[in-house]
Amino acid sequence: MNPHGHSGPALPAPQASPGQGGARFFDWSRVRILLPFLREYRGRVIAALSLLVCAKLANLGVPLVLKDIVDSLSPDRAILVVPFMLLLAYGLLRMSTTLFAELRDVVFVRVAQRAVRKVALSVFRHLHSLSLRFHLDRQTGGMSRDIERGTRGISTLLNYMLFSIIPVILEFVLVAAVLLTKFDWRFPAVTFLAVGLYVYFTISVTEWRTSIRREANELDSKANTRAVDSLLNYETVKYFNNEEYEAQRYDRSLERYETAAVKTEASLGLLNVGQSLIIAGGVTALMIFAAQGVASRELTLGDLVLVNALLIQLYIPLNFLGMAYREIKQSTTDMDRMFALLGQHREVQDAPGAVDVPDGSVAIRFDRVDFGYDPARQILHAVSFEVPAGAKVAVVGHSGSGKSTLARLLYRFYDVQGGSVSVGGVDVRRLRQQSLRASIGIVPQDTVLFNDTIRYNIHYGRPSASAEEVIAAAQSAHIHAFIESLPQGYESAVGERGLKLSGGEKQRVAIARAILKNPQVMIFDEATSALDSETEQAIEGELDQVAIGRTTLVVAHRLSTIIDADQILVMEQGRIIERGTHRELLALGGSYAQMWSLQQQERSDEAPQAGN
User: Do residues 493 and 453 make contact, with C-beta atoms less than 8 angstroms apart?
Assistant: First the structure.
C-alpha cells in the first residue's frame, strides 16, 4: 500500500524470453512493467527530476563562472580587486550541485524501494499460486538467487534510467548549446562525433557482453542450487560420509562460474579501454583547437579553461553512461529469470464465478477419478467413493497404491484428468481455492516445520487464534507437557525443517496445528506413523474427539487405528479393490484380512521382545 493507504499498481505477469534478451538493442518491456510504480509516485518522480535539472544547471554554471574568474585574473588585465563575488558564486554552484543531487536521491528512494517490494511480493505470491508439480521440480537455491538478483536489478534499472541516462542527455544538450554559441563549428562537431562513436562502441560491446553475463548468471544459480541442496540434506551427507564428494561437486560448479566470471571481467576491461581511447581522442582534439585559439588571441585563457571544464563535465558522466548502460543491460538480464517465474503458467486456477465451500458439515465425493502425475503413468483408475457429512472413511493399501494422492486431489494441488472430486456437492474446480483449503485440515505423514518457535508452528494453523487457544490445541495433541518442560517453553526453536524435534514430537505439533485450524474436513495421512505405541494410543483418543462432527478421511498404515471407521477402502495399484467396515472386510477374507492378520502377527512377535 502507498502512504495514503491505497493498494499499489497491479503488476502484470510478463512473458519472459531470456534467450532473446541479447538480440535486441534494449528490452523496453522491462521498463514498461515498472512504469505503474512511477505513475503511482508521480509527485516524487517529478520532484526528483526537477532537482535533477537544478543540479545540472548548477553544474553547467561552474565552468562558466570559472571562465570569468580566470579572465578577470588574466595578466593582461589590471587587477583592481579580487573577484570575491565570482568566487562566492563558484563555491555556491559547487555546493548546489551536490545538494540537489542528494535531495533528488532522498526524494526518489521510496519509489525505487516500493517497486522492489511490490515486484518481490508479486513473485512470492505467484510462486505460492503455482501447482505442486512446479514446486516438486524447482531448485530452491537457484530460484532464490534468481529472485535476489532480479529484485536488485529493479532498483538498479530505475536509478540508472532516471538518474544516469536522462542527466547525460540533458548535460550533453546544455554543453552543446554553450559550444555552439561561444565557439566555432569545429568544437561542437568534434564533440558530436566523439559522443556518437562512444555510444555506438558502448552499445556494440555491451550487446556482446550480455551473453557472457547470462552464462555467468546461469552458472552462479547452479552453484548456489548445489550448495543449498547439499546443506538441506546435511544428515544424508553425514550418513554416507560424503562431505568431500559434495565439496568436489560444488567446486566443479564454482570452477565453471569462475571461468565465466573471468571472461566477464576481461570483456569489461576491453570496453573500458575502448571508451577511454574515444574520450581521450575527443578531449585532445578540442584542447588543441582551444590552445590554437588562445595563441592567435581569438580565444582567452578563460575560454581554454571553459572548454576543458565543459568537456570534463560532459565526458565524466558520459563515461558513467557507459557503465549505466552496462548496468541496465545486466539488470534486465538479471530480471529475466525472475520475470520468467512470473510467466510460469498456473496449472490450477480459480474458475470464473468460483464459489465458497458451503457452511457446516460437508460430504466428500470422488466420482470415477482418473489421475496421473505424468501422462505416461496413471496413478488412479476410475476411483469412486463418498465420505458422508460427519462420517469417517479410511483408506488402506500398500505403498504406491495411490492413497496419499487422494488428499492432494482433495486439496486441489492438481486437477483430475477424468471424473470429478466434490466437496459439499460442489466440484472442487468450481470452488475458490482459498475457501477449499481453509475448510480442510491435514496431519501429514511427513511433517515439515518452519525454522521458528514451537508456538509459531502451532499458531500457523490459525494465525488469528489467541495464546490460550494455542495452548488448548497443544494439550489436545498431548504435547503441552513436553513443551513446558523445555527451557524456553513455547518459544523453543525447532530448527531447520523441525530437526531439533523427534519424529513423534513433530507429528504432535502437526496434530496441534490441525486442531487449532478447526476445519470442516480432516485428513489424517498416516498421522500417527512416527509415534510409539503408548503415545499413539493416547493421541488416537484425541484424534477421535477431533473427528467428531467433521467429515474425516484417514490414510492409514496401522489397521488398528481405523477399526472404528464407517467405511474402509482397500486400494491396490490405483483401484479400490475392497470396501466395507472392519468386520465386513475381515469376513470377506480378502486383502484387508491378510493385512490384518500380518500386522497382528507382527504385534504378537514384538510383545515378547518388549518384555525383554
Answer: yes
- For CA atoms 515, 516, 522, 524, the dihedral sign is negative
**Are 343 and 16 spatial neighbours (Cβ–Cβ below 8 Å)?**
yes
Q: Are 53 and 78 in contact (CB under 8 A)?
A: no
Burial of residue 9 (number of CB atoms within 10 Å: 0-12, 13-18, 19+):
middle
One-letter amino acid for residue 374 of the chain: D
User: What is the distance of C-alpha 493 from the center of its chain?
Assistant: 25
**Do 210 and 332 form a contact (C-beta atoms < 8 A)?**
no
All three cell numbers of 436, joined, read 477449499
Query: Pick from 394, 483, 396, 491: which is nearest to 452 by CA?
Result: 491
**Residues in a beta bridge with 364:** 387, 423
- Residue 464 makes CB contacts below 8 A (sequence gap 6+) with none
Query: Coil, strand, or helix at residue 530?
Result: coil
DSSP label at 567?
E
Instruction: Cell numbers for 265, please give them.
Output: 571481467
Given the C-alpha cell 498416516, which residue does it identify? 526
Q: Indicate the helix (H) or strand (E) that contains 307.
A: helix 301-342
Buried b (16+ CB within 10 A) or exposed e, 213-245: bbbbbbbbbbbbbbbbbbeeeeeebeeeeeeee
Q: Which residues are bridge partners to 370 per DSSP? A: 418
Q: Which of 93, 111, 91 is nearest to 40 (CA)?
A: 111
Dist CA 126 CA 128 (whole Å): 5
DSSP conformation letters of 206-239: HHHHHHHHHHHHHHHHHHHHHHHHHHHTHHHHHH
Q: List 366's β-bridge partners, or say none.
A: 385, 421
Residue 341 CB burial class (10 angstroms; 0-12, 13-18, ≥19):
buried
H or E element at residue 273:
helix 243-295
Strands 567-572 and 392-397, bridge-based pairing = parallel
Q: Which whole number is the average pLDDT over 327-347?
A: 74
- pLDDT tens digit sequence for 491-546: 998 887 777 888 778 888 888 888 888 888 989 887 666 566 666 676 677 677 77
pLDDT tens, 221-272? 788 888 888 887 887 888 778 888 888 888 888 888 888 888 888 888 888 8
pTM of the predicted structure, to 2 decimals: 0.60
Cell of 140: 530452491
The structural domains of the chain, ordered by start, are: 25-342 (1.20.1560.10), 358-439+551-604 (3.40.50.300)
